[in-house]
Design a protein that fits this description.
Helices cover 36% and strands 12% of the residues. The chain has a single domain, classed as TIM Barrel. Helix 11 links the parallel strand 10 and strand 11. By secondary structure, it is an alpha/beta fold. The chain has 16 helices and 14 strands. The strands form four sheets. The chain has an eight-stranded parallel β-barrel, surrounded by six helices.
Length: 411
């Protein structure tokens, strides 16, 4: 123990205060890093209020640019999820699907043959086979051809490009008559430091695309979302690494649970709307499996959701019951894996039922409408005002028999 006299002497010599165990750090000292709590779908619950609404009076529409969709569920830009034909089918159900222009559909005239090979590969060789398949160069003529295939068949031609290809591909998509352009990567920001003399500038991309809505992602941060919205884009994808086929959280250690990410980015949207009068929808992308997940995402502030695995499990999806993340083919650092979901449902059952499944994985729209009605919400923006609570026991309380019957030995 240092005496008080010795403390005073040391302070005089060093110019620094000497602390004992009963003293706190001086205010001019650096403070330690602190951690925020963040919540996923299983950590929270929606709280019904004093009013209920008949589900057939609920209209869960959302608007992106000049387009309004009756189904607020979007199919992800994954080659095992979205093909031109499947995009048309989904559009006929009131939503839309995003075709990956950096993927197999613009590298091969016969992409179906390559998809068959990937689906037939064993687990050990699947990633290397995917990497090899994506070594084939992108053929620019196929960009316009795929967009035209969707448009001619009466679908919504929504396509995705990586930021590094956006300046080159955007004019081609515009010329082909694309309906929606998405710029997506693991994390996209309005400010990007690179060695390029002039990187992608989103405000200029919006100008190039004219009246075509530009959707950008992904992000989880309020400030990043605000800055993206100020460039003039029309929608934001929310989520870093939650998808079943994505391994970015394991490989890079980055991400945020989806409910917290949705709350934070929705706050940014509302600030932007208050400042400018321009409403920019946010879309919770990834990590959703059930009607409860969809309802929680939208209650937390999402205007729509984007999903991959549930669509990949539908008959007619191009992956033959498999799908993989957009970063899986990366030759240096793959951040995805091929996952098997099997094709055990249909688009109609997945979105609208009827269903005999009791786990919430079918009739997603029906579940959303019922959840909204239970809380008295008739529109998605009404639902944004519904109370939510932190409730980690929401899925286990009183469910001992369900757990024992569906997960023997508590597994």
């Amino acid at each position: 123990m240092i005496s008080l006299r010795k403390e005073a002497e040391l302070e005089m010599v060093t110019g620094e205060p000497i602390l004992n165990e009963n003293q706190s750090t001086p205010s001019n000292y650096p403070v330690p890093k602190t951690l925020d709590r963040a919540y996923g779908f299983d950590d929270v619950a929606i709280v019904p209020g004093a009013v209920t609404t008949n589900p057939d009076m609920v209209t869960p529409e959302f608007t992106l640019g000049q387009y309004t969709f009756s189904t607020p569920i979007i199919a992800a830009a994954m080659d095992g999820v979205t093909s031109p034909n499947f995009a048309v089918q989904i559009a006929k159900k009131g939503g839309f699907a995003v075709l990956n222009l950096d993927g197999l559909w613009t590298r091969y005239t016969d992409a179906d043959g390559v998809l068959e090979e990937i689906a037939s590969a064993d687990v050990q060789t699947s990633t290397s086979l995917i990497q090899k398949a994506y070594e084939e160069p992108i053929k620019e003529n196929l960009i316009g051809q795929r967009i035209e295939e969707i448009n001619v068949a009466g679908g919504i031609s929504a396509v995705s490009v990586a930021p590094q290809n956006a300046k080159r591909f955007a004019p081609l998509t515009r010329e082909a008559g694309v309906n929606i352009l998405t710029v997506a990567s693991t994390v996209t920001t309005a400010k990007h430091i690179s060695r390029s003399l002039e990187g992608l500038q989103l405000d200029k991309l919006v100008e190039v695309m004219g009246d075509t809505p530009v959707l950008v992602g992904n992000t989880v941060d309020k400030q990043a979302t605000l800055e993206l919205m100020r460039t003039g884009i029309h929608g934001v994808l929310v989520g870093v690494g939650p998808g079943a086929a994505c391994t970015s959280r394991e490989v890079l250690g980055v991400g945020m649970p989806q409910v917290s990410a949705t709350l934070e980015t929705a706050h940014a949207r509302d600030i932007h709307f208050a400042d400018t009068g321009r409403y920019v929808p946010i879309i919770t992308d990834g990590g959703l499996r059930t009607g409860g997940d969809v309802s929680k995402a939208i209650c937390a502030g999402a205007d729509a959701v984007m999903i991959g695995s549930p669509f990949a499990s539908c008959a007619g999806a191009p992956g033959r019951g498999y799908h993989w993340g957009m970063a899986t083919p990366n030759a240096d650092l793959p951040r995805g894996v091929r996952v098997q979901v099997n094709q055990n449902t249909t688009l109609d059952k997945l979105l609208f039922g009827p269903t005999s499944k009791t786990d919430g994985t079918e009739n997603l729209v029906g579940a959303l409408k019922t959840s909204m009605g239970t809380c008295g919400a008739q529109t998605i923006r009404d639902f944004h005002s519904t109370r939510m609570i932190i409730a980690p026991s929401i899925k286990t309380e009183g469910k001992i028999y369900q757990i024992s019957q569906t997960r023997p030995a508590g597994i």
